[in-house]
Amino acid sequence: MAGHSKWANIKRQKAVVDAKKSKTFTQLSRAIIVAARSGVPDPAGNFQLRTAIEKAKVAGIPNDNIERAIAKGAGTFNDNASFEAIRYEGYGPEGVAILIEAFTDNRNRTAADLRVAFSKNGGNLGETGCVSWMFEQKAVCVVQEVVDEEQLLEASLEGGAESYEMTEDEIAEVFTEVANLENLNQTLKDKGFQVTDAELRWIPSNSVEVTDPERARSLFKLIDTLEGLDDVQNVTANFDISEELMAVSIS
């Protein structure tokens, strides 16, 4: 988890917001479609949908786009596109295990795009199950402006959390079981904490240490390429790397 957390932290600090805005809009719109389809198309009764809408609004997606995405998921807006959530698996440089979560309306296109991305960056797309056994899905709440860890601990325990990790100054990630995400999210908010994200995440049970600068660059290029694909929602990998080498490798 450490490697992926460091990677996420550094990426948040990079000034790439404008360049990836259209990509973000595509991702978040598809997340709304799938959430609306997997439960009731009403955010009041669908936590996954409510969370997806909140993220979309923070990203600046217009309300019309959000309503259209909900309608697509509910089946009341027909554009002949049928999206489904699919998980892909593969290996990167140094044998790093990689999980890719995608929302797609064309499995063949998505698989072909992923295969090209892997092959051009020192990895290979694998079969279903080849690396997923090394990951466990957990629910995570990201909390900003944490000034009192003792209060966070108390609120987290009350909300049924299993653990928490301070990832940056005054930013914490609180982990719980998948089924408890909504409860933990609400408890933290009720206790006055600023929860900026509530999501499901794959946590690796082991990690591969990457020490070679060239392999590190190839790995980060692969992850960046995968995340740049329209069909891809999330990429998780089990690498661990020093912050110094990471900073050099992505500069």
Automatic annotation (TrEMBL):
Keywords noted in UniProt: Coiled coil, Cytoplasm, DNA-binding, Transcription, Transcription regulation
InterPro entries: Integrase-like_N, TACO1_YebC-like_2nd/3rd_dom, TACO1_YebC_N, Transcrip_reg_TACO1-like, Transcrip_reg_TACO1-like_dom3, YebC-like
A GO cellular component annotation in the UniProt record: cytosol
GO function term, MF aspect, one: DNA binding
UniProt record, GO biological process: regulation of DNA-templated transcription
Residue ranges occupied by any TACO1/YebC-like second and third domain in the UniProt entry: 83-239
Coiled coil: 164-191
HAMAP family in the record: Transcrip_reg_TACO1
Name recorded for this polypeptide: Probable transcriptional regulatory protein I8752_22130
